[in-house]
Amino acid sequence: MRRATVLLARLALAAIFLYAAATKLPDMAAFAKDVANYRLLPGPLVPFAAAVVVGIELVVGLALVTGLWARAAALVASGMLVLFVAGLSQALLRGIDLRCGCFGGDEAADWWTVLRDVAMLVPALVVLFTPVPGPPRDDRELSAHLGRMSTKY
Amino acid sequence: MTGVRLLLHALALCAAGGLLGLAGNSVTPKPAPFGEPVTSTAEAPGGMCQIQGLQAAIPRISVEEATPLCVACSALFVDARTAAEYEAGHITGAIHIAPGDPVDPVLWRLGVYKTVVVYDRDPNCSLADQVAKTLLQHGVQDARVLTGAWPAWTAAGAPGASGTCGLCGTPPAKGSP
Fold this sequence. Notes:
The complex is a heterodimer. Chain A is an all-alpha fold. Chain A has six helices and no strands. Helices cover 73% and strands 0% of the residues of chain A. Chain B has six helices and seven strands. Chain B is elongated, with a radius of gyration of 23 Å. The N and C termini of chain B lie far apart (82 Å). Classes of the chains: A mainly alpha, B alpha/beta. The A-B interface holds A 25-33, 35-39, 42-44, 46-48, 50-60, 63, 69, 71-73, 75-76, 79, 94-99, 106, 108 and B 1, 6-7, 9-10, 12-14, 16-22, 24-25, 28-42, 51, 53-57, 124-126, 129-130.
């Protein structure tokens, strides 16, 4: 059950991050403009930040899909989501009208967008904090594992 | 996985993602322009207070639309900047209400006009938005924020005046003109 929950959370988070990266890739210039509209970074840094964010979303999504370094990917995803929540909140509190830039397109940023990002933290934290036993690594572990299995069934 | 290893893996993912993003940007159809500063829409020339394609929370009005209303005195203009900025120069006939100022003393005047146009000098129009929001909460039916703010108004050569706010006082006594 626990393994299934983590798998579901991992794949859901992977789908979100891969989709987010895929929607931004065709028009990175527009995403850079969206980043600039948050008014957090100096202009010369904005295009680099935009490219780095999309690259990390892509790598995190791939890591979560494959399961390679999944907990580390969930940690990065959590950090990114916290940053997104902070960025959105400061913009809204400062009265800045902006597109959120979350999944490309013209979606306006509002408090629902913030809430959605907070909700996305749930699967990230599930993957990060729910330990899932891996496959046996050597003969001793394998024997113990088989022993547990025979007792169980 | 120990905490340190987890952190190292996370840093490695960030580094790999960062490099992938920087390298991948050049092969995308519309890359982010490395080497060129990207400024916000609000900071772009003529783009103050206006994000293209996005409906603002408080309705906007352009300088072109607002100028005839000022000339015909069919709208009341509200300056949301500081008192010193107001005294140095403001839209002709505008009254001064900064964010946090009480609006009750001037509500009687606001009620006379069908439209109230609020402006400031802030690139995000956040001061004007705050004042406009307060006015709407106090029953003003049609409060709008001036796109381009004071800089766009002066750049367009629209009517301006200077001095303290003589219109910001209490209502005239009954019987007076």
